[in-house]
Amino acid sequence: MTLLARRLEWQRRARPEAPELRVVLLSTFTVDSLVPYLGMALAESGIEADIAVGPYGQVMQQCLDAGSETSRARPDIVVVWPRLEDLWAARPLPLDDDPSGYAEDLLAMVDATGSVTTSGATVLFVLPAIPEMRPLGVGDANNVHGVFAVATAAREAARARLAALPGALVADAEEVVRELGSASTVDWRRCAVARIPYQETAFDAIGRRLARLVHLEKRGAAKVAAVDADQTLWGRIVGEVGVDQIDLFDNGPGEAHREFQRYLVELQRAGLLLTVVSKNDPDVVWEAFGRPEMVVQQSDLATSRVSWDEKADSITAIADELNLGTASIVLVDDSPIECEKVTFQLPEVRALLMPEDAVGWFDVIGRSGAFDRLPPTDTDRMRAASYQQEAQRRVLRDETSMEAFLASLELRVEIRELDVADVPRVAQLISKTNQFTLGGMRRSEAEVAAIVDDHRFAGYAVSASDRFGDYGTVGALVIDRSPAGLDLPSGAAVLDTFVLSCRAMGRGVETAMLASTFDTAGSVWTTIEESARNQPARDFFAGHGCASVGEPSELERPAWPAHINTD
Amino acid sequence: MRLEQLVGDVFEVESSRLDDATSPTSLDRWDSLGHLSLISAVEETYDVFLSTSEMREARSIGALRQILAAKGVAA
Fold first, then answer.
1. pLDDT range class, residue B61, cuts 50, 70, 90
2. Sign for the pseudo-dihedral over CA of A92, A98, A99, A100
3. What pLDDT, in 10s, does the model give residues B25-34?
4. Chain A interface residues facing chain B, Cβ-Cβ under 8 Å?
5. pLDDT of A491
6. What is the value of ipTM here, to two decimals?
7. Beta-strand relationship, A524-526 and A553-554
8. Contact A196/B36, CB-based, under 8 Å?
């Protein structure tokens, strides 16, 4: 679809009556051109959004004034996109002056966006591109106080400050300049005529990046890569040429496959689970893993399916084993047929078809956005180890009775009052948990941060460990001491959030969490909503007083599970 | 593509209502931002570039058609 066709398509689309997201764009320049591209990119990722443009050149006022047009629109997301040329309009370009002042206005803008987060909206800040006008030409690179150097320092200072803003997301206009080249990004004509400094191609590129970030925030990152073996991890077909002749050799395609394996290992470090899904004789594949040139080791794999089964069945089995939804699995395969078969049988699974030549596959994957993820939290880093521990627990469970199994776990659970340090992980749990959740409302990171000091709410983070390892923070619950709008007996509190990672389900942690809510209030009510995958939570709450879904019910206090120790 | 058709698509009006005299005064949607949208649509459709002064002068379908004709585009 051409860019014009995308713009016209957005124009023709009916505005959603109940958009999933309300977005406001704030900028130091005319940013209206971004609307159709962001709207289309969001729609293509399944998010219907209503997008408005805030008043021109009023980023600070719109963020700081609680009565501003932007605040009154109660947006879910506020995109803030300044341009250094605009922020520096009253100054000469950096040359030999003290460079510290050049970050001031940008940092002030970052600080102003902090007011947006306290209203519950998520800030999506676009770091400004480095200005194109560099009077020293090639000499600018030699100047520690030059345009590039000072702009870079200002951008990094802003990035660092944004990292401290709860829930803020960051995109980077400079990455678009890198992607397209500045000649295809900036638009001097439209800048002169209407203060539109970028070309349509650039607005399209930034729109797609913003949509990827929003998708990541709303839907979460892919959790598992299901990677094919022949012609993917290595060159050639192991069943045909034998283990010694699969191509992992230097100076050719084998080198490219090894480079791809290095990328997979990096993805795993960032929190992605690696699995192999191959139609093959398992003995041969695992023997191939013994080749010394292999970068991905068998011990890097969370699990695998090497058999002659259909890959869709193998992926479903992996999802069951890892206790995840198939939608969180991405197939990486060189075979168009296999990719098509899998997406036909499992439309929710994304299949990445790798080009015939194995070079630059990391770039193909990077551009697809399929494995986009936010910087890993400590809990993410523990997760890969946790899945291996889970396999050991499963072996033990098969061997013994349930009660004996639970007792043998030496499970410890800590339920602590929500602290600022818990906010990112708890927000992540709230946004990602699909199975053990009440359904209904999900607080954003900014909203979670807001309850820490709000006496109306009692928030708790839940950690668990057992003799196989530490699960980290696996659950959270929020109790509303003064619920509004419900006809409840006086003194009754409402449990409005109750999430538990699927990694910790089925061990009594949920019972311990529910028991602990009665330390806050004598009478606790909750409403469990039906969502696509929260059957485990519905079953659990049905056993503790929630007779019907969608109706407020008084919870029955369970006993603290005997097999769980507390700190 | 005929220029009237393109202008009709951009401003969401029937192209039969449009002629050389159509200008920002006769179409509500042809405001200053609408003008820039139209210029981008024209540039992408006919593979041309308008200078800043041409952008300013192109204030009717007839004027735009003349600018395109000078660039060898019959629209």
1. very high
2. negative
3. 999 999 999 9
4. 2-4, 7-8, 11-12, 30, 32-33, 189-190, 192-194, 196, 200
5. 83
6. 0.95
7. antiparallel
8. yes
- Reference A522, options A486, A488, A493; nearest CA is A493
Q: What is the pLDDT of residue A380?
A: 63
Helices (H), A195-237: 200-219
pTM of the model: 0.72
- B40 contacts A189? CB cut-off 8 A: no
Among residues A356, A340, A338, A100, which one has the least CA distance to residue A227?
A338
Contacts of A189 in chain B (CB under 8 A): 49-52, 55
Partners of residue A4 in chain B, C-beta under 8 Å: 40-41, 44-45
Q: At how many degrees (to 10) do helices A336-345 and A311-322 cross?
A: 60
In eight-state DSSP terms, residue A555 is P
What Å distances lie between residue A178 and A170, A185, A196, A205, CA to CA?
A: 17, 9, 19, 11
Mutate to test the interface with B, among A3, A6, A8, A198 (most CBs of B within 10 A): A8
Q: Which of A8, A11, A193 sits opposite B55 (nearest CB)?
A: A193
How far apart are the CA of A189 and the nearest CA of chain B, in angstroms?
6
Per-residue b or e along A518-557, where b marks 16 or more CB atoms closer than 10 Å to that residue's CB: bebbeebbbbbeebeebebbbebbeebbbeebeebbebee
Edge to edge, the sheet with strand A553-554 lists: A553-554, A524-526, A493-500, A469-480, A457-466, A412-417, A565-566
Strand partners, A224: A273, A329
> How confident is chain A (567 residues) per 10-residue block, as mean pLDDT?
95 87 95 97 95 89 85 91 95 89 93 82 96 97 96 97 91 97 96 95 98 94 97 94 94 95 95 95 94 95 94 95 94 95 94 95 95 80 66 61 76 92 92 86 88 92 87 92 84 91 84 91 90 85 88 91 85
Q: Minimal Cα distance from A30: which residue of B?
A: B33
Nearest of A326, A349, A347, A351 to residue A338 by alpha carbon: A351
Counting Cα atoms < 13 Å in the Cβ hemisphere of A64 gives 9
Cβ distance of A4 and B40 shorter than 8 Å? yes
Contacts (Cβ under 8 Å, ≥6 apart) of B63: B57
